[in-house]
Backbone:
């Protein structure tokens, strides 16, 4: 009889701890599935099927690139817009209940790709930072190095031909294939992400020279969706490369009335001739492609 009270107390404590764990899980961006196990009938939770999708967000960052990929609980960010887009990119990621990024990729050191990268590295738990082996003299580039250092991280340059996992998706590195180039664009890290029978190709600002190298290396560049190289510039998307990629869809990340005249008319004509359906951040705003491993569906938010 003496022990009865403490036993009751410990039962109450145990139940309370379990409830707290449940609450913590509910608000933890990575805890949804666990919560689902405790309360399988709670209909307010995201359906389990969202964990079975590869979600690819093309953020509208004007004349710049930023793509957010999520499969299961693993997330990759490819580029982070201009310096002025830093808070936009950080808020976008936060709004999707993401606190941890497995990979943060700066395709090459131009501002319209790495501008917001320092802020992303500062605000989130980052496991890997990928950038090509080339430096730049700008403050923007220095800021990224500083943020990497302050977080105790190291920049690595993934080798063309290597493969990594993003949840149940595979990330294949296709470029760069040389040690040195004249311009920074051809240093772009090019990634192909495959999920089930679907595939996405992210080309940064890689130009015809790098495209040629990928073909010469014998890489399978074919993809259902391609992020059109260099904002639709005529310096990228060579005919040979486009015919090898054979995309059904192309996404052009581009700003309204930009000073470069991107996307170039001849690139648009080439894509039209090859029956590529085009989406553009200047027209469609934020673009979300979702793959269930077999089909790709599209959503837009202007
Ligand atoms: Zn660019
Ligand atoms: Zn560039």
Residues:
């Amino acid at each position: 009889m003496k022990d009865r009270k403490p036993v009751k107390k410990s039962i109450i404590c145990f139940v309370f701890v379990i409830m707290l764990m449940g609450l913590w899980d509910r608000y933890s961006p990575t805890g949804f599935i666990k919560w689902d196990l405790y309360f399988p009938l709670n209909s307010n939770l995201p359906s389990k099927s969202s964990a079975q999708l590869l979600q690819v967000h093309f953020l509208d960052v004007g004349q710049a690139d930023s793509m957010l990929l999520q499969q299961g609980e693993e997330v990759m960010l490819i580029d982070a817009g201009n310096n002025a887009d830093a808070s936009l990119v950080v808020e976008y990621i936060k709004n999707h209940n993401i606190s941890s990024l497995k990979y943060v990729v700066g395709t090459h050191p131009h501002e319209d790709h790495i501008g917001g990268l320092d802020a992303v590295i500062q605000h989130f738990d980052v496991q890997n930072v990928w950038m090509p082996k080339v430096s730049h003299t700008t403050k923007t580039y220095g800021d990224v190095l500083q943020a990497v250092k302050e977080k105790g991280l190291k920049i690595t340059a993934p080798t063309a031909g290597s493969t990594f996992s993003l949840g149940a998706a595979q990330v294949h590195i296709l470029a760069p294939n040389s040690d040195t180039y004249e311009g920074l664009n051809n240093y772009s890290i090019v990634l192909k992400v495959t999920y089930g029978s679907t595939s996405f190709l992210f080309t940064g600002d890689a130009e015809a020279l790098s495209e040629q190298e990928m073909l010469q290396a014998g890489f399978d560049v074919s993809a259902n969706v391609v992020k059109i190289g260099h904002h639709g510039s005529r310096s990228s998307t060579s005919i040979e490369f486009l015919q090898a990629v054979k995309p059904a869809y192309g996404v052009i990340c581009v700003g309204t009335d930009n000073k470069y005249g991107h996307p170039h008319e001849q690139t648009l004509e080439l894509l039209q001739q090859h029956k590529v359906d085009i989406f553009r951040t200047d027209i469609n705003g934020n673009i979300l492609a979702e793959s269930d491993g077999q089909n790709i569906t599209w959503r837009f938010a202007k």
